[in-house]
Amino acid sequence: xxxxxxxxxxxxxxxxxxxxxxxxxxxxxxxxxxxxxxxxxxxxxxxxxxxxxxxxxxxxxxxxxxxxxxxxxxxxxxxxxxxxxxxxxxxxxxxxxxxxxxxxxxxxxxxxxxxxxxxxxxxxxxxxxxxxxxxxxxxxxxxxxxxxxxxxxxxxxxxxxxxxxxxxxxxxxxxxxxxxxxxxxxxxxxxxxxxxxxxxxxxxxxxxxxxxxxxxxxxxxxxxxxxxxxxxxxxxxxxxxxxxxxxxxxxxxxxxxxxxxxxxxxxxxxxxxxxxxxxxxxxxxxxxxxxxxxxxxxxxxxxxxxxxxxxxxxxxxxxxxxxxxxxxxxxxxxxxxxxxxxxxxxx
Length: 347
Ligand code: HEM
Fold this sequence. Notes:
Elements: H1 8-17, H2 27-55, E1 80-81, E2 84-85, H3 103-106, H4 118-122, H5 177-181, H6 234-242, E3 254-256, H7 258-263, E4 273-276, E5 279-282, H8 294-298, E6 303-304, H9 306-312, H10 318-321, E7 326-330, H11 333-339, H12 343-346
Bound molecules: protoporphyrin IX containing FE (HEM).
């Protein structure tokens, strides 16, 4: 049983006194009671010392550190860790009464990061005086835009010289009206074949002579197309054919002999007739509409143009293009003599 220390001595004396009196106390009580009580007293005192020691700071000296075989061995307090001193702190070291500090000032520093770590060293201590960051200096106001000087007025000396006056002596004589309207055709007739400079490369790798060598332009523009005068487009020709005008130049279809065809060659004011596959067409109205140029078409005037036609554009439907220009059919001189003039007479 546990008894308070104040009653312990009286209880022990009573037990000791009765030890000799075997009849007044039981054997159990008389033998065990004093022994247990003495051991319990020692333990109680030891426990009291432990409680007092636990309440002290770890660095406080202890009365005895002798390990007891009955208790868990305690580690001896040390002020160093692997040889490095462990920083200690006490609440009394920091006196916050004079600066009116807050609770934050009185609190110990956090355990992380470690006190002697570089991470903590990089952190500005909370109790360090806070230095206000320098106020950003105001930027200098932008320079006021300076107005550009007005452009200098041109002086008579800086102006370009006026163009020379046009006088009659500077002018070239005007060409005649009719040729100026026509599309100029220079050079030989085109054969629509491969261009000389488009052939296969020569053995030395070059593309051959320049395009102009030995060749003149067949058409006036760079794309090889004939520039038709305004109002002479293919659509304009189609509209003219549908207009109902007599484009053949004859009141009715006639028999055309080779001599007659040859006569109407388009020169000296005569009409330009041309035969294609036995039919004779008056190509005179079509000359300014011909996409290949008037000169090209004139090559077939007064004769059979079928061969030239097929060499250049066999895909063109000439009968449809010149349907309103039909003059008649080709007949031999003999046939014309035998059968008379008009086709109606032949039937
Ligand atoms: C009355 C008969 C003829 C008609 C209706 C006719 C009609 C045409 C047409 C529609 C074109 C444009 C073809 C295209 O762009 O694809 C053309 C182009 C041309 N024609 Fe004729 N043609 C005739 C006779 C001839 C003759 C007899 C020659 C030559 C002797 C000739 C030489 C050309 C040439 C060089 C072109 C230019 C081709 C080009 O621009 O690439 N045409 N012709």
